[in-house]
From TrEMBL:
Residues 7-156 form the PurE domain. It catalyses: 5-carboxyamino-1-(5-phospho-D-ribosyl)imidazole + H(+) = 5-amino-1-(5-phospho-D-ribosyl)imidazole-4-carboxylate. This is N5-carboxyaminoimidazole ribonucleotide mutase. Belongs to the AIR carboxylase family. Class I subfamily. PANTHER family: PHOSPHORIBOSYLAMINOIMIDAZOLE CARBOXYLASE, PHOSPHORIBOSYLAMINOIMIDAZOLE CARBOXYLASE CATALYTIC SUBUNIT. The keyword Isomerase applies. Catalyzes the conversion of N5-carboxyaminoimidazole ribonucleotide (N5-CAIR) to 4-carboxy-5-aminoimidazole ribonucleotide (CAIR). InterPro entries: PurE_ClassI (IPR033747), PurE_dom (IPR000031), PurE_prokaryotes (IPR024694).
């Protein structure tokens, strides 16, 4: 998965062990042709580099940050405190506590420092949310998002048709 588009999204995570989860955000961005960079940035293990990365992100041309981390996941909140960019936090589930630790570390931000937190392991939605944020000021990207939403609707129609057939009972039936 590579992209030659202008880099607009910074996709960072506390460790390379988060990549199997975070890759879904990368895939969603690539689907929409949104350029991104991916890297390991850790608030706990490289605090000064983390602050430097966050402080420079907007000036480097990034427009949205997606930050994923597991366990005591302070990365998204700390990045949000040093950048004016929108930050989307992804709670990464680890072996213990099922990601609840990460979710609660990310979601309960103090007033004034927002992080848009997606579900545990919800990296695909983080990618899609980043696309929506960018699409608000980008008509071409917005058209792609509308087409994507239309495909979701068609998928739901198809599921309904399959279910009605399996159940052997006609329902109301939506769509074509
Ligand atoms: N939560 C954080 C932060 C941070 O928030 O700064 N840095 C690393 N980590 C997390 O530690 C977990 C284990 O990392 P390792 O697999 O490298 O031991 C990862 O899920 C990472 O996101």
């Amino acid at each position: 998965m590579s992209t030659t588009a202008t880099v607009r999204v910074g996709l960072v995570m506390g460790s390379d062990s988060d990549w199997p989860v975070m890759e879904e955000a990368a895939k969603a961005l690539a689907e929409f042709g949104v350029g991104f960079e991916a890297d390991v940035v850790s608030a706990h293990r490289m605090p000064h580099d983390m602050v430097a990365w966050g402080a420079a992100a907007a000036e480097r041309g990034l427009q949205v940050v997606i930050a994923g981390a597991g366990g005591a996941a302070h990365l998204p909140g700390m990045l949000a405190s040093v950048t004016p960019l929108p930050v989307i936090g992804v709670p990464v589930p680890l072996r213990y506590l099922d990601g609840m630790d990460s979710l609660l570390s990310i979601v309960q931000m103090p007033a004034g420092v927002p992080v848009a937190t997606v579900s545990i392991g919800g990296a695909r939605n983080a990618g899609l949310l980043a696309v929506r944020i960018l699409a608000a000021g980008d008509p071409e990207l917005r058209e792609k998002m509308v087409a994507f939403q239309e495909s979701l609707r068609q998928t739901a129609y198809d599921k309904g048709a399959a279910l009605r057939a399996r159940a052997g009972r006609a329902g109301v039936g939506f769509g074509s």
